[in-house]
């Protein structure tokens, strides 16, 4: 590739330092060690050159929410040895593609998807860590708004068991997005309860993927182990094309 734009490198470096400072401050306030909190850089809508810049600055984990964008980006940066996280809603017919490059799928929300991922990962000779996505939005659960992302908290253990059935899948823990309205801290507290219930039965399922650029402090306070940061690292996203 051509050399990275030095101005962009400096901008991302400064953003990364600021994000790490926020994480450290949040950990100090919560009495947690920053070592307990991993950062996943969500690179959606940003070019593969930004993935290279992040890697050059020490970022090891990157996330994407659409297969159409993630697949070519992962291929373009395959030489970097990064860990790829798939964090978006996933159609079953995309399972083969996602299982070919993703290491962690944060958005497993139904048994049928777990089965498709389990079969595709096995066929590819790969192991895939799966997180149960939990719906923390009571309004969407009641069918009041929008498409639901994730299972109801009460159905999480059942889906965890379905994931565990597949040899090629590793149950990693839980993931959630805070509802658009309301207090993210209260929502993440509900996630923390579900995470504890799953961990009681599956002690290795320790991942709590919660917190984005706007609410990482609340997520750290409520036990997040993985923060998914886009805007805080790479700036505002343009419109989604394609
Ligand atoms: C885009 C996205 C993020 C990152 O959001 P920011 O607010 O830009 O940090 C995190 N999680 C998911 C599921 C996303 O789609």
UniProtKB/TrEMBL annotation:
InterPro entries (UniProt xref): Ala_racemase_N (IPR001608), PLP-binding_barrel (IPR029066), PyrdxlP_homeostasis (IPR011078)
Residue span, Alanine racemase N-terminal domain: 15-236
Cross-referenced Gene3D superfamilies: Alanine racemase (3.20.20.10)
A GO MF label: pyridoxal phosphate binding
Requisite cofactors: pyridoxal 5'-phosphate
A Pfam short name: Ala_racemase_N
Residues modified to N6-(pyridoxal phosphate)lysine: 44
Keywords: Pyridoxal phosphate
Xref: PROSITE patterns: UPF0001
NCBIfam families registered for this protein in UniProt: YggS family pyridoxal phosphate-dependent enzyme (TIGR00044)
UniProt family annotation: Belongs to the pyridoxal phosphate-binding protein YggS/PROSC family.
Function text: Pyridoxal 5'-phosphate (PLP)-binding protein, which is involved in PLP homeostasis.
Protein name (record): Pyridoxal phosphate homeostasis protein
